[in-house]
Amino acid sequence: MALKLDSFAQSLETDLGDSVLWSDERAESFKLGGKAPSVVVSPADHEALCRVLSRANEAGLAVFPWGGGTGRGTGYAPERYDVALSLERMSKAVEFLKDDLTAVVEAGMSVEDLNRLTGAEGQTAGLDPPHPGTSTVGGAIIADRSGPMRVRWGKARDRVMRMKVALADGATHTYGALVVKNVTGYDMNRLLSGSWGTLVVVTELAIRLYKAPEHTGARAASFSSTDAAFKTARALMASPLMPIWAEVLDDARIASLASGGGIALPGPVSLVASFGDFEEGLNDQLVRFEEILAKEGGDDIVRLDHETTSHLGRTLADPPGGDFSDPAVLALRASGRLDQLPRFAEAARRAADSGKYRFAISAHAGSGVLRCWLAPESEECSPLEAWRVFNSLCREGRDESQARSVHLRLDSGPDSLKEQISVWGEDALEPGVLQVMRNIKKTYDPNGILSPGRFVDRM
Amino acid sequence: MDSAGFIQKLTDAVGEDYIHTDPVALRTYDCDGLTIYKGIPSAVVLPETTEEVSRIVGICREYRVPLIARGAGTGLSGGATPLPGGVLIVFTRMNKILELDYVNRLARVQPGVVNLHLSRETLPHGFHYAPDPSSQAACTIGGNTAENAGGAHCLKYGMTTNHILEMTVVLPTGEVVHLGADGEDSPGLDLRGFFVGSEGTFAVITELIVRLTPNPESVRTMLACFAQVGDACRTVSDVIAAGAVPAAMELMDRYTIEAVETVVQAGYPKDAEAVLLIELDGLPSSIKPLETLIRDISEKNNCSSFRIAQTEEEREGLWMGRKKAFGAFGVIAPTYYCLDGTVPRSKLAQVLEEFDEISARYNLRITNVFHAGDGSLHPNVLFDDRVPGETERAIECGSEVLRACIRAGGVLSGEHGIGIEKIREMKDQFDEPTLEIMERVRDAIDQDGLMNPGKLIPDEENVFPVALGGAIARMGGGMTK
Ligand SMILES: Cc1cc2nc3c(=O)[nH]c(=O)nc-3n(C[C@H](O)[C@H](O)[C@@H](O)COP(=O)(O)OP(=O)(O)OC[C@H]3O[C@@H](n4cnc5c(N)ncnc54)[C@H](O)[C@@H]3O)c2cc1C
Ligand SMILES: Cc1cc2nc3c(=O)[nH]c(=O)nc-3n(C[C@H](O)[C@H](O)[C@H](O)COP(=O)(O)OP(=O)(O)OC[C@H]3O[C@@H](n4cnc5c(N)ncnc54)[C@H](O)[C@@H]3O)c2cc1C
Questions:
Q1: The CATH classification of domain A215-316, taken from the options 3.30.70.2190, 3.30.1490.20, 2.60.40.3450, 2.60.120.1060
Q2: What is the predicted ipTM?
Q3: pLDDT in tens, A92-125
Q4: CATH second-level architecture of A2-88?
Q5: Does A179 contact chain B (CB < 8 Å)?
Q6: Which atom of ligand 1 is nearest to the CA of A70?
């Protein structure tokens, strides 16, 4: 391997000079699952990146594309890890077509920079990953990172109009076009959004934008139980109101928002939803939401102005801080029908209890997604026990087909746990589906050099 | 091949009442809404369950016979046109709504459910199925999913792909699997998203879980008329750029207005070069400022008149013109060829000018009536298929229209799919390596090449010759575009 790496390095140096920077000193900060790469390579542009890939492919070196690294906790430890391919030098805006609500950017641009670019024209991409200053546009799309705002803007993959990608062998493809409606050939953009660096490296994206609402506001109310809060959220979703996000938070999550973000929400359980519209429409939506809250038994209504709403929106994407940012924390996720959320919340509580953890819960109540964080409370906490309980309670009493429709994932957690479980929830996939995924992987990356071992079924 | 044995097995799979093999019956299935290409299948089967479909796929695989799925056959790109000798699986019997779950805002349906029937069922409960292709009174949700169909209201509510949560499919191996989930997330690659719009070339869909959308509380419909098409196009761009998302924004040009007014008298001014039919929906309080905004933008762009429907009757009248437009073309020409290239909104005016130039060059009239809000064009090449050579000329003219869309940064198809119709132009849209990877991915899924071959990706082996005397678009009874 060392020999292969040497010749890889040499050939890049002689051919590409400054267009590829190369470092083995920084390798420690690109660790995945406890493994550091041999080298960190940062190409300056698409062509250089393609050359890096084709050389790595020839040498059979394992390459992990690297955006901001905020998703490093997700997935299995690499099977092999030679090269961290960093997009840090590819972070420019290519074109901002404001009249067409389209931004074309290099994949390494941070989400915050994209927000700044589009925000200057009152537009938004509706992307809300945690740590937007670090998370890249490419990473957010390739991980299909869809946060609280998905209830209004859809999933991250809905943002992609066009993608320029480099294949494992260094070839270039461009999929899609700068149009919002397109059924020309297969929808490759959807195939790649959510492929976690296993099929291609994205170098440039055209992102569909929306006009950001000029007026936003939010209302929160306290509930005595998560069940009551979820029921109210369902009433909201069945109404003609259009929330930007609608979250149910438990007391630990509320406390973390108070201490970390200075935002006071009423407990023990809060339902908080934000709206954006012209002024008249906004006021109407807020009043009507208050009526729903009151009717469903919500109390202590808190009114958030435009600024606090934006601030809370950004903060909601981040994990709770304090104890909950410890590397031993388990970040769990469950997704299913809206009326399954109470069951997921109960499963989280019982999982925490049996594994000896403290927990915090936050759910995208309009999208059927629950996230919870378990922080170790004592030395003898058991991540495996907690996962098992979570898994079985989320799926309990359901026949095979119903169990399949509940999607569980470990967003992050100790590597020792990952070795024992199905991190991506792929145990729910039928063999035929996994086979199709494997066949596609093989088509794109026959030598298996892109992110080997990290994704579903360790493919 | 032992064809008797093959047909016997298919008969055993679906029952003898649900298989057609006699030539007269087969001929009724020889094409979809694009009648220029035809193919006679060896058998038509009408299964009732997923298991039967799986058995059919297994038998076809054993005998290496291609299979083609068909919903209502309203497709406009030849997707459901059988490769001669193939087996056509028709979903007419799999037309049941299996579950309506209003709490979770979803429905579980069989693929043969007619689009409009689902909304009809759910409307009284406060919900509807949002994707609304103009063929919705006839087309099926399975066909919509395979084409990723759009419609007038997709501007606000998204295409079919945004409304499909899970699909049960029979893979080419005969295996029955589920893609996606009834929640929003599922593990691994987004195969649900990738299979939507794959035109029946990956798998056969046998069941779907779709999203239901709450009904809007109020609707406002307005008509803005213009003396210049360019002004109407600029209005479209300006409205979207201002952050207004109407539920629908449809543009009709002079020829369309003329045809419509001859047939239904929708009240479109005959001297206008273009009209915009704009619909807003949502809370009255959200709509009101939008209405003012849209009127201001239209006026800034020199609209000659601006009218808001004051009654439901008036509103229906305005839509009637749009819905009858395609039928009305029959009055001004024996037949027409409907294309669906899509361009960035800001390029609308430019491509419409180019269409005029192409129209003059081919001496064939091109009319335009389309989903302007998302740049989704419907140029219609009018021609007379009884005149020798005119069909071929119309096809060439259509091809030029599509190339103009590509030059403007657009694409071949925004709604109707590639099928057989635009397969040649795929080479204008994509370079060789990109087409090749699409083909390789398809091969990775359908290793024996039996799923709807000869569609979507240029294919030297399975070519559909132009059928003699075939008109290009045949409008079925009761359908409105
Ligand atoms: C607290 C916290 C919560 C999170 N919650 C979620 C969540 O809810 N859902 C979720 O999906 N993720 C979640 N993540 C992960 C992370 O937010 C997303 O994966 C995303 O925003 C990563 O962006 P990044 O630039 O940091 O990518 P990275 O972390 O660098 O990479 C993420 C993945 O994308 C690949 N990748 C990155 N750039 C490219 C590229 N240009 N081409 C090809 N592959 C590329 C990488 O190989 C890797 O597989 C969370 C992370 C944190 C820290
Ligand atoms: C008057 C008129 C108006 C139209 N308006 C619109 C419009 O506004 N927007 C729009 O998008 N389209 C429109 N169309 C085109 C057409 O109606 C759509 O493409 C529709 O989705 C086709 O549905 P179908 O049930 O008729 O499918 P078919 O035509 O039978 O089949 C279409 C494709 O789907 C495949 N297919 C069908 N069922 C299955 C299945 N169960 N599993 C796998 N593959 C399957 C077929 O093989 C074929 O490739 C219009 C057509 C007409 C005639």
A1: 3.30.70.2190
A2: 0.96
A3: 999 999 999 999 999 999 999 999 999 999 999 9
A4: 2-Layer Sandwich (3.30)
A5: yes
A6: 26
